[in-house]
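Collaborator request, handled under Task 6.
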Amino acid sequence: MSRHVGREPRRLTRWWRRWSLRARLTVIAATAIAVSVFVAFQVASELLDWELKDTAEDQVRADSRVLATNAERAGLAQVQLPPYPGSGRLVRVILTDGSIRTPAGQPRLPPVSEDAGRVAQGASADLMESNDSDEDGYVIYTLRAGDGAVQVARVVDDSPINEFGFGMLLIGLLCVVGGALVGRTVARTGLAPIDRLTAAAVRVAHTRDLDADIPDEGGGEIRRLIRSINDMLAALRDSRRAQRLLAEDAAHELKTPLTSLRLNVELLIRLDRRGTLDSALPADGRTRLLNDLGAQVAELSTLVAELTDLARGDVSDESTEVLDLADVVLAAATRAGSRVPDIEVALDVTSVWVSGRPAALERAVLNLVDNAGKWSPVDQPVQVRLRIEGTSAVLEVDDAGPGIDAADVPRVFDRFYRADSARSLPGSGLGLSIVQRVVDAHGGRAAVARSARGGALLRVDLPAAAPPAPPDPIAPSAPPDPIARPSAGEDTVMS
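Structure tokens returned to the collaborator:
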């Protein structure tokens, strides 16, 4: 039974929600008007009934006083009672012995009540009664007169209330119909911007045209909704533009290494088919060609990895944690040395705690070191410094290369941008762009300046975090760090 009762409200809710917003607003408006008319009718009926009864009571009091004056002059038994005229007041005289006198032809009144009998016996001066037990209701006033009492009664006429109720019913029906029409009109007018907004959204969904902004109209919530959707369309346009540029730039950047790789592979295949591979390419030539192929494959692998990382944006399954940035810098320097043995990295790092994603931060530091390693002379190491300044962790990577031209500084972190002097060097122009994205995702700032050694100085500022609480003294100690970390101010060269 309880389950059935519980399902009914949900069923009614689903049925109500299937209606259109216009229909619901129309029903709500009509219902509100109907309730208002009903409440107004109840209040007005009570007021009218009270006013009619108050008027009838005033009238019977006045008539009773006149009849009591006549009865005291002529006596209760001799006072003249005119025949009943067929309508109007009804009178009755209560004698001392409890008997009654009524005019000839008058309708029978309800029996004398005990309270009225006590008035006739002198227990009280007067009494006002209402009798609604019969088909007709009476207002009966009993007034002490002489040795008895006189009574004047009037029939309480409900016809004015009934006529008033019928009129209110007609007015209520008209108001409900008018309210429904007004509600539908108001709903249609108020929801017109929503209709246009819906049509525009459907048009965008069908045509895929994100350049069609929705006109800013209406006010209040409607205007905020339209502006929000226009902002969403602008964000979608930017996203589509970024995807298109990424695809175009990726195709352009992949074209050169793929073409070179294809030509070298086709040369090897052609020579092998002719059987002239050994004669046309001596051992040292094959070695150079294979080295070129390996370098081209490595360049393609790096480019694809960077494109994948860049295309992912800020989407990552890696969780954020509080970590020591010095560990990240040491791991990145170790990877850089293993990837390019010619790179020497001089470390000057201090333990600085930050909140971030370890793999993303390591990739950013690795890109900074790789970029500096391309420009730094063989006999000059890449210097990596990590320290804390105020509430920021400051990472600096500089080289002793030619530096960055002033015209190139504003575009250093742009995607696929490569200075003219870097065209002949390996790379895709994505490394520093990835650095910028990672730094932005961690609430930091990346900048470029001139190094004291004449090269480029790339600086990254990240918000510092409070170090984690020390481990429980009774807990087993952690294994030693496999990477020896230099102390503050100590330089370590890694190659």
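The cover message to the collaborator said: "The two ends are 80 Å apart (CA to CA). Residues 252 and 394 are 35 Å apart (CA to CA). Please let us know whether this matches your experimental observations."
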